[in-house]
Write a structure and sequence with these properties.
- It is built from 9 helices and no strands.
- The protein has 216 residues and is mainly α.
- The longest helix is centred in the N-terminal third of the chain and has 28 residues.
- It is globular, with a radius of gyration of 17 Å.
- The termini are close together.
């Protein structure tokens, strides 16, 4: 049992590292960001906080709203919120990923960043230690409103982009590419990896604690 949870935790942490590299590349691409990154960058620029801190606040707010709507979360959700933010701030501080200043170079870096974000998410989801905060929010809103997850996601992301843009977040061609291409990239990668996210049960905190107590 401990060995199983250790293996799953390793998948989770590696997924966070890969996702953080991908998000940092998207930030440094300098051609526009995906919706949630627009908001988080806008928060960072308008308040002086780091991008990672903004990411942590947004993630915590998202899972808080999901819980209020009746959704649960797992230990992986909490680790996701904290670790990804720390890794992104660390990578930005180290300056290992240069900022792009040309459109072709920026788009290429954005696309690589998106692919790494998808792979990191796959690793994280594979651990089955809890849904991501933003995903949990979308599911909660869908259940609460009776609308589809896709419609809830699109509606929330439009609001997120507008608020982020007003706060100074970068909106550009990269935002359009991310908004329309990220879902297809997820579908393609999950197909090639034979990964069925909808069939994988994500443990919430209570289930993990119960399994650990029972030694399963």
């Amino acid at each position: 049992m401990i060995r199983d949870y250790t293996r799953r935790l390793l998948w989770l942490v590696i997924g966070m590292v890969v996702s953080a590299v991908g998000i940092t590349m998207m930030l440094q691409a300098n051609v526009g960001l995906e919706p949630w990154s627009v908001l988080q960058q806008g928060m960072a620029q308008s308040t002086g906080m780091t991008y990672g801190t903004a990411s942590m606040i947004v993630g915590a707010a998202a899972i808080g709203a999901a819980v209020l709507c009746g959704e649960s979360f797992g230990f992986g959700t909490v680790i996701n919120i904290i670790l990804c933010a720390v890794f992104i701030d660390g990578l930005l501080a180290l300056g290992w990923i240069p900022q792009m200043h040309t459109l072709p170079g920026g788009i290429l870096m954005l696309l690589i960043g998106l692919e790494l974000l998808v792979l990191g998410t796959w690793m994280y989801m594979k651990s089955a230690l809890g849904a991501g905060p933003r995903d949990a929010l979308m599911v909660a809103l869908a259940r609460k409103t009776g609308h589809s997850v896709g419609l809830c996601r699109a509606s929330v992301e439009i609001i997120v982009i507008i608020i982020g843009f007003l706060l100074g977040g970068q909106v550009g061609i990269g935002t359009v590419i991310s908004a329309f291409g990220l879902g297809s990239l997820f579908n393609l990668n999950f197909f090639l990896l034979h990964f069925h996210a909808e069939k994988l049960h994500q443990e919430n905190v209570a289930e993990t604690l119960r399994n650990l107590r029972r030694g399963k």
